[in-house]
Amino acid sequence: MASSTPGRDQRRCGSRVVQGSDLAEALNCAAREARRGLNAVSAAVYLLDEDQGALRLALAGGSAPSFFTFPGRMALDMPSATARAWATGRAAVLVDPDPAGPDQDHVLPYPYVALSAPVASGDRRFGALTVLRVETAGVFGHADTLFLEDVGRQLAAVLAHLVDDGVGVAAGPTPMLVPAEQGVDTSVCTPGWGVRDVPGSSGTSMMFPLRRLAELLNRATTMDDVVSAAQYCVMSSLRADALVLLSAREGRLWVLGHSGDSTELARRLHGAGVDDQTPAAAAFRGRPLYLTGERTSLLDATSAGEPRTEAYLPLRGDGQFVDLPFAVRSPVVAVCCLAFSGPRRFPSEERVLLGMMAGLLGAAVERVELIAEQHEAAQLLQRFLLPAQLPDLPRLVTTARYRPADVTSKVGGDWFDVFRIADDRAVLVIGDVEGHAVESAAVMGQVRTAMASYATEGHRPAAMIDRTGRVLAELGTALTVTCCVVALDTLGGTAEVALAGHPAPLVRHRDGTIEALDAPANVPLGVPMIQPYEAREYTIESGSILMLYTNGLVSSRSESPETCARDLLGATDAVRMPHLEDLAERIVSEVVTPQQRRDDAALLLARYEGAGRQEEPRAAGMHIQRRDLRGVGTARAFVHEQLGSWGLEDMADVVELAASEIVTNALIHAGSDVDLRLRIFEDHLRLEVRDSDTNPPIPSALSLTEEEAPEAEHGRGMLIVESLADEWTSYPNGQGKTVALKLVIPQL
After folding, report:
1. pLDDT-derived band of residue 715, with 50, 70 and 90 as boundaries?
2. Per-residue pLDDT at 604
3. pLDDT > 90? residue 724
4. In this structure, what are the phi and psi dihedrals at residue 737, rounded to the nearest 5 degrees?
5. CATH numbers and ranges of domains, the chain
6. Element (H or E) spanning 158, and its range?
């Protein structure tokens, strides 16, 4: 049955209501009369485009946000009311493009009922006239259909006259938008938005957070940026208490980010099955769901039947909501979950706003995830091009750090290497390939391979650089490469230094003084060299620390690179020589924040222990395949056996527990291969666990309360590690990150 419509007695079918001396006036007149006569919130006129392959929006009139939901373009075969009216020449109605099934009280109907009539006169078909009415105003009846068809015919007659007079009848590049005029407002007043009883105030007020959301998401480059924008513009605007963004991978739901009082909601959703009977899983099948807190349903089973007020919005990568509700849509890339403290309704216009916001969020999530995938691919390439770990050397202790550039998702060209040539000789190399691109990484890999070959053959540093430069010339690349090579005789303490346009290495002596090991600067590899490369020799005293670095470590500072490097190396007590790992951590911690780091950076430190130390360092390691949870037991057995062979049985229980917790954390959260390494120093044992995930272990808000999360690392397992270790840290390395523990060896 048709609903009663205010103003119906005043409308006149067959009477002349559409007039206009130009195209804009005629279209506006028709849309206004249709909206007035049918109590519609908005009306739109679509005209056939010049290619006659689609309908384009020419004019929309009414109130926000409804008239922003009209598609800008419709294919002629789209199963929408507008396209059907044009194709059949008869009025068409679309009540709900995807009606809910029985017992689905949580599924609210599509916000609008659409009625469309052809704009045709005789054999001339210009387009279609469409009106939208909120579902609470009732469906369109037969009289409504006759009225709209009459308005469409009148508009067609006016357009035919314009064509005969030589006026072009076509939609412009941008639709004409006409707000509802004062005194004849048919907009919906939505509680909580705008000024009550002021026509159009609520709809216009809804546009502010939508516009602000678009602005913030346009600048978003990380998922944290997306969550922050959603918290400010969606959660706060709707007065929600919690927000959670979900993705679906490998049959399960995973939390991308959350905000507000969201710990419980995130815990409930994280890891749930995609096929479970839950609102979140159902939303991934493409339909927004609303739990109004007034009744329970089968989808509320996880909450023990307690009513909840929550909204679940599917986010699609096409960035559209009402534009294409009837057509084949792009896949759902994520779901936005909102939770409220008490029962609430979701009025029609508010659901439209949420749909528009969902469209913006979907496009942003897809773009940010693409950026993350590109960044991950670049880091993966970078990890395979850098050494997984440095060799253990007698009389020489080494460590390295690598920091990728954080303002680009492209791969960098910095690298480092340590080669053990013989029992008494080691070669240290660090370098920087120009640019941040795949070509830079490829050149870096080839240069690194060449350096390794020439070092293994026994060539001296200057010859290594010279021969590598020839290899680079044969590659035909326009990229240049700077590098520093130090060959160290660990018996005599002689260091031979050769440079190719690279900063000179620094040495910190036992008394804390710092000296630059200057050598002829030469020219970078890739630049034609007239004179042969030259090197310079130095004698290094026992206990000295060598520092090789790339420009990315110091390029963000205002001082000269060498001055900055000296400050970094001298940052500790000049009398008490620091442990090498501690010094490396201190140096990289002084580097600017990731948001300002525009270049990748590499650091290589080496402590020369002197000829008096002849024994091999006590070190051992093992490898665990990704997802091999049995490897945790293997790691415990390895630690137990190794410590027993070193006479450290008393430390076995503590080290086994720490190793098992870190290895478990790496296997589960990093999802990669894991390397475990034990090293003994004079007064302490060092346990290192490497994986290929560059993200450091961070507080897990899914396992802790909001207050506990900032105080612990990755849940209970890392809390145990924190309590066992005398010191522990996490830092990126060439192939991901390393979690390292220092445990003091008990003195008898």
Report:
1. very low
2. 95
3. no
4. -135, 160
5. 8-179 (3.30.450.40), 201-379 (3.30.450.40), 386-615 (3.60.40.10), 618-748 (3.30.565.10)
6. helix 142-164
- How many other CB atoms sit within 10 Å of the CB of residue 42? 29
Give the start-end residues of each E strand in 434-569: 481-489, 494-500, 506-508, 514-516, 535-539, 545-549
What lies within 8 Å, CB to CB, of 341 at 6+ separation is 241, 309
Residue 187: predicted pLDDT: 54
Dihedral of alpha carbons 639, 643, 644, 650, sign: negative
3-state secondary structure of 209: helix
What is residue 195's DSSP assignment? -
In order of 332, 334, 460, the CA distances from 252 in angstroms are 14, 12, 56
Beta pairing partners, 690: 675, 738
How far is the C-alpha of 43 from the C-alpha of 423, rounded, in Å? 85
What does 334-370 look like in DSSP terms, one character per residue? EEEEEEESS-----HHHHHHHHHHHHHHHHHHHHHHH
Span between the terminal Cα atoms of the chain, in Å: 94
Residue type present at position 206: M
Q: Tell me how crowded residue 15 is: count the other CB atoms within 10 A of its CB.
A: 8
pLDDT digits (tens, 9 = 90+) for 120-173: 988 889 999 999 988 767 778 899 999 999 999 999 999 999 998 888 898 888
Work out the average pLDDT over 337-342: 91
Q: Are β-strands 54-62 and 176-179 bridged in parallel, bridged antiparallel, or unpaired?
A: parallel
Is the omega angle on the peptide bond into residue 71 within 30 degrees of 0, that is, cis? Answer: no
The average pLDDT across 494-499 equals: 94
CA distance 422 to 396: 13
- Cβ neighbour number for residue 311 with a 10 Å cutoff: 28
> In whole angstroms, how far apart are CA 186 and each of 11, 34, 191, 308?
15, 12, 16, 33
Which H or E element spans position 250?
none
pLDDT at 2: 44
Element housing 737 (H / E) = strand 736-744
Global pTM value = 0.64
Q: Which of 469, 448, 477 is nearest to 532 (CA)?
A: 469
Q: Is residue 741 a contact partner of residue 728, using CB atoms and an 8 Å limit?
A: yes
Tokens of 633: 């037991």
State residue 438's pLDDT score. Answer: 75
Give the chain's mean pLDDT: 80
How many C-beta neighbours within 10 Å does residue 527 have?
Answer: 15
| Contact by Cβ (8 Å): 499, 456 | no
Residue 167 backbone dihedrals phi, psi, to 5 degrees: -90, 130
Tokens found for residue 689: 């666990």
At 74-83, the pLDDT tens digits run 889 888 899 9
**Residue pLDDT, tens place only, 612-666:** 554 555 778 888 877 676 788 888 899 999 888 888 888 888 888 888 888 887 7
The tokens of 422 are what? 């013989």
Structure tokens at 139: 């469906």
Q: What are the DSSP calls for 254-290, one per residue?
A: EEEEEEES-HHHHHHHTT-BTTSSSHHHHHTTT--EE
Q: Which amino acid is at 539?
A: T
pLDDT at residue number 134 = 80
Band the pLDDT of 325: cuts 50, 70, 90: very low
Chain centre to alpha carbon of residue 313: 19
8 Å CB contact between 151 and 34: yes
